[in-house]
Amino acid sequence: MIIKLIEIILIFTIPLLILRFRSTKVISLISTVGAAYLAGMIISIAASFVLPTRDVSVSEILAYVSISLAIPLLLFSNNIKNVLRLSKTTLLSFLLLIISVLTATFALFIVFTRKLKFGEIFSGMAVALYTGGTPNLNAVACVFNLDSNLILAANISDILFGGLFYVFLMFAAKPLLSGFLKNGSEAQLYIDDSANTEDIGISFSFRSKGVVRNLCLSALSLIVSAGAGILLWVLKGSVDGTLTNYVVPSLMIGTTVLGIALSFSTKVCSVKENNLMGKYFATVFSFAIASIIDISKIAAISLRMFAVYAIITTAAFIIHVLLCKVFRIGADTMIITSTAGIFGPAFIPGISKAIKADYLLASGLIIGSLGYTIGTFLGIGYTYFLTLFI
């Protein structure tokens, strides 16, 4: 009992400390998600020496609960209504990015990934990741009840290659592409984008009615989604050992749908702490998953996983460039929409400054929000589609 209590305290306090000190050099270099995974792996290694037969059920439950709370909160911070204000060029570029990701993923699946165990799920996770973000990748993994070791391997692969690719986008992409993709005109959108940026503050207060209300709405989304999963399990005959197979997918899909629906409320989406609260619970998930992994299994699968995600990222980018050339989309718009899809809205401010395209900041933030909204559904749907080719 004491060990489980310590486990719960660590799961909720270490991510809080990571977010509190996220501006430090080490955490800013590897990202808050990377720091959470690293801290969780250290805890896992230490626990393996002290408790060789450790019960990890508490960490698994808290991981599913935390990602289910994170999804609605992240969606609350994204005012999806602003998508209607985007130019046709920006929307077209994002559509071309989606096509590029789907094409690259399918090609690699046919050649290599389908030979791997769970290859179709890895591919669906990649689609969710590169059209949405890390929360979408983790949601798809949870829907298909993927082993925590495989989830961690996918995230580590994304962090390692993603870091290199982000540097490329920031410093080399525009000089390389500016002669090939001629910039057109892109109207600046004057919207309040403060809720979508990375640094919106370092804490949130329960004295705020908006914070309490949105946390309650997120929890209610979780409860309703879990209830739907349990009801479906009962209707299917309540087969022993299969409850998780119904509840977890129901949680991921249900909280996403409800999060999107609630984000249309002005009161809900106007709470600036939404993003930070969502990031906190997403960080809790990362730490909890990493704290229960088996290091020996990670080492065996990480190289293959790294190759899969590195190839998809690179191939999707090249295809996107070629399609943008065909449709006469400029380098700035192409780079911003690529960043929005591959990395998410939090990375848009840095890239827009680096390539001197501040006029596309608002558009990039909105596109990143749209990616968060559709990424999970694309990933799930594509996973089922790829099973036709196994």
What is the tally of helical segments? 16
The tally of structural domains comes to 1
Q: Briefly note the structural class of the backbone.
A: mainly alpha
Helix and strand element order: HHHHHHHHHHHHHHHH
* Cα gyration radius (Å): 20 Å
The level of helicity is over 70%
Structure keywords:
390 residues; mainly alpha; 16 helices
What would you note in describing this structure?
This protein has 390 residues and is an all-alpha fold. It has one domain. Helix content is 73%, strand content 0%. The protein contains 16 helices and no strands. It has helices at 2-20, 25-50, 57-76, 88-111, 119-131, 134-143, 148-171, 173-177, 209-235, 243-262, 266-269, 274-290, 295-326, 331-342, 348-354, 361-386. Helix 4 (88-111) packs across helix 13 (295-326). The longest helix is centred in the last third of the chain and has 32 residues, at 295-326. It starts with a helix and ends with a helix. Mean pLDDT is 85; it is low at 189-201.
Fold topology:
Elements: H1 2-20, H2 25-50, H3 57-76, H4 88-111, H5 119-131, H6 134-143, H7 148-171, H8 173-177, H9 209-235, H10 243-262, H11 266-269, H12 274-290, H13 295-326, H14 331-342, H15 348-354, H16 361-386
Concise description?
The chain has 390 residues and is an all-alpha fold. It contains 16 helices and no strands.
